[in-house]
Design goal:
Structural class of chain B: mainly beta
Oligomer: heterodimer
InterPro entries (chain B): Beta-prop_WDR5-like, WD40/YVTN_repeat-like_dom_sf, WD40_PAC1, WD40_repeat_CS, WD40_repeat_dom_sf, WD40_rpt
GO cellular component, one term (chain B): Set1C/COMPASS complex
Largest interface: A-B, 58 and 66 residues
Number of strands of chain B: 28
Number of helices of chain B: 0
Order of helices and strands of chain B: EEEEEEEEEEEEEEEEEEEEEEEEEEEE
Largest sheet of chain A: 4 strands, antiparallel
Distance between the termini of chain A: 37 Å
Distance between the termini of chain B: 16 Å
GO molecular function (chain B): histone binding; methyltransferase activity
Largest sheet of chain B: 4 strands, antiparallel
Structural class of chain A: mainly beta
Strand order of the largest sheet of chain B: 1-28-27-26
Organism (chain B): Olea europaea subsp. europaea
Radius of gyration of chain B: 18 Å
Strand order of the largest sheet of chain A: 1-28-27-26
Strand content of chain B: over 45%
Pfam families (chain B): Beta-prop_WDR5
Shape of chain B: globular
Radius of gyration of chain A: 28 Å
Chain lengths: 495, 311
Amino acid sequence: MNAPIIDPLQGDFPEVIEEYLEHGVMKCIAFNRRGTLLAAGCSDGSCVIWDFETRGIAKELRDKDCVAAITSVCWSKYGHRILVSSADKSLTLWDVVKEERIARTTLPQTPLQARLHPGSSTPSICLACPFSSAPMIVDMNTGNTTVLPVSISDTGNGVVPPSRNRFSDGSAPFSPTAACFNKYGDLVYVGNSKGELLIVDHKNVLICGIVPVPGNAVIKNMVFSRNGQYLLTNSNDRTIRIYENLLPLKGGLKFLEESNHAGDEQDGFEKLKAVGSRCLALFREFQDSITKVHWKAPCFSGDGEWVIGGSASKGEHKIYIWDKAGHLVKILEGPKEALIDLAWHPVHPIVVSVSLTGLVYIWAKDYTENWSAFAPDFKELEENEEYVEREDEFDLMPETEKVKESDVDEDEEIDIMGVEKDSAFSDSDMSQGEICFLPADPSPDVPEPQDKFVGSNSKQGDSNQSVSALSEEAGQSGRLTSHISTPLEVGVSAI
Amino acid sequence: MANNGNPTQAYRPYSLKKILTNHTRAVSCVKFSKNGKLFASASLDKTLSVWSSETLTKLFSLTGHSDGISDLAWSSDSTYICSASDDRTLRIWDARSAECVKTLKGHSDIVFCVNFNPQSNLIVSGSFDDTVRIWDVKTGKSLHIIRAHAMPVTSVHFNRDGSLIVSGSHDGSCKIWDASTGALLKTLIDDKVPAVSFAKFSPNGKFILVATLDNTLLWNYSTGKFLKIYSGHKNRVYCIASTFSVTSEKYIVSGSEDHCIYLWDLQGKNLVQKLDGHTDTVVSVTCHPTENMIVSAALDNDRSVRVWVQH
């Protein structure tokens, strides 16, 4: 698409690298729901949680059983849990606040991507896409895996017996597949190597609909926008496609079942295609017809207005930004290191990209001071306005100055307590106790060698006791370490 | 004494419950913890005292600063206290163990005011060196150093979601800053006189309460217009902290240089009560988050912390 690049001054998207984060070699990233925390999986098997506001490390999840590189990281909906998949074929589920491992499962194959069920606040079901076999639903509590169907042709009616492990009988060839949950997790959308999009009811292991993707190329990635209204597919024919989700967001499965019975097409492939056409409609296609570059880690912006994709060409760190209408608005270019992962902040116009060297770059708008901020009665104009002076403006004693009254109603009721709901998070039932931030415990000052003396312990309730303080530099005592939840090694965020 | 402005409900006056004398010099600040169980007082005698709200007895002192303390702030989970001192440093204390956990160095002059953000991973401080600094609680590093004003900064406060900071200064201006970038977003007042002695956001973050050395006003900061004026008290010299009382009816509470505490009805602006008893300027007042309790602190001639409750 050779559409002209629209004026980069408009639009809410990032422009320059603001900062980079460094901690070991990071491989994949994920924001929590509000974008206050960024989880990063590292090559040594640990998962680091960054406080995105201070750009410092809030927590580090480290498991001695897992030392192989992390391939993907995923937050639960309200931030209580994190699921990591690793190159040693394992999936680990963590409790974020307690920093404890809840469960660990080993799969027959290395999972390239693992996604927690988005419908619950403490999910234990997840969707894992292994390296070269069909995606599966894994129950982290029991370790049970349910393989999802990736093709209708071998069974004829779309039903796969749940106990059959397709890989063990050696019949399935290398068939990379991509899969993702829809917004509330009642359906799984699977993209197979024949370029077909399958809509699967994962509870009953049933293919409900099929959408053939034009080009029939292997589908590499699939992701929904945050509001669940658009689905993005990244195919081997170097094209990113956006589909509009025609199903209702809540109760999509029920709607499908009803429309299944309602339709009068014959059974089989044609029926499934008809159902599929009622679920997804092709909206846009993005490709770079000049360089014909393969795309890596494409995703939506937080509000779904923008689509970004990284160039998969080696040795370059390029991020393409399109608006939903299909116009390329910007190409962000970073240092000459291959790009391996990409994420758009859920709320702000900030993009985070991971390079092959393990650094995480934060892209943000280039901030310029607003001149009207410096004086209270400055007003910024969009364009030149013709100023018409008052009749008496240049009089020595202008009439209007004599009548000076405030046009403010001083008796108006003011509400100092009411708060409006944040429209960006429309479906938040805040009673869930969403984790927006992790408590920051100050790491104690390193004690200096000179004048270090330990203060006497004070007991609460004993009003006459006063603590003789430690000197200015010393800050450590045995009692303090029990409060500190992070290791004393302080995370470095370099500017 | 009482000027009843609300005809539908009789105003229940506050009265003195207890006088707490502990400090050996002027008390500069009192603040309740966010859970209301404790309150802390800071003094020019270089110490802080932490008191139980229930028993009104002192639990312990925090010592370590080498000069007087002007301001203190509680973290949102009521575990940490941060104090701003004339010794140019800020200290973070653990209120459970009564120990100093961290010292924040960087200001080149007296640190006058301090506050945590609601997430309590950042601290904002204002100093006589004319700058506002944003600190990372975990590491103690300055994330932003803002050349905010042309004269000492008297007051700094985060809004409800921690995205904005309001600062007031002796140079007469009151400014609003973006907390994540440190950039100036708006200037509210720009007159050189009078000095802005105090500024804070309303609980919902939509309004700013500003005190100047001749009056107290309540502003709507998005339109830049003042909405209400509260007057009758005396405030010409000191940076007296005022606050919102929201536990029953809505009031504005402020100390005064005539040794009294003034309570105004928020909407009607009329004075509903004047609490007297202190023997010097009442420089700080704080309201309990859920109960109808006010604690006040006064300067050198008085040195006491007084607790007032509504009957």
